[in-house]
Write a structure and sequence with these properties.
mainly beta; Immunoglobulin-like; 3-stranded antiparallel β-sheet; 12 strands; about 0% helix; about 40% strand
């Protein structure tokens, strides 16, 4: 379940997430990824085996509120290698909030599929 505060994990708490967390691309075809960050923390979409390391800009805190103005990161590349490639966020997510994403849990924290990790399939 997702809402404006992020994806709800098996611990019933809100967590940072990439939606969709897995997707399919075609080898040799340029693709433009647009990532909107609703969080005030930087993130990444890193797939070392695909030579992909996208740094996602943090959203901006709105003074005097708990709101965040989202920011957009756009990245264009052409995948050349076919296969299934694991990606994850290289930064600890939700650390210090007690939400568990940076700690081991039943869904393995920041490396959990559907949250801050997934697969890029290149066909």
């Amino acid at each position: 379940m997702a809402d404006e505060m992020g994806l709800v994990g098996p611990d019933k708490l809100h967590h940072d997430s990439f939606i969709p967390s897995s997707f399919v691309l075609k080898a040799g075809e340029p693709v433009q990824l647009t990532i909107i960050n609703y969080d005030d923390t930087k993130h990444s979409l890193s797939a070392p085996d695909l030579n992909l390391n996208i740094m996602v800009k943090p959203g901006k805190d709105v003074a005097g509120s708990d709101q965040v103005t989202p920011t957009t990161t756009t990245y264009t590349f052409t995948p050349t290698k076919k296969g299934q490639f694991r990606w994850h966020c290289i930064f600890p997510c939700d650390s210090g909030t007690g939400k568990g994403m940076a700690m081991k849990s039943s869904y393995d924290g920041q490396d959990a599929d559907g949250f801050m990790a997934g697969y890029i399939e290149v066909i």
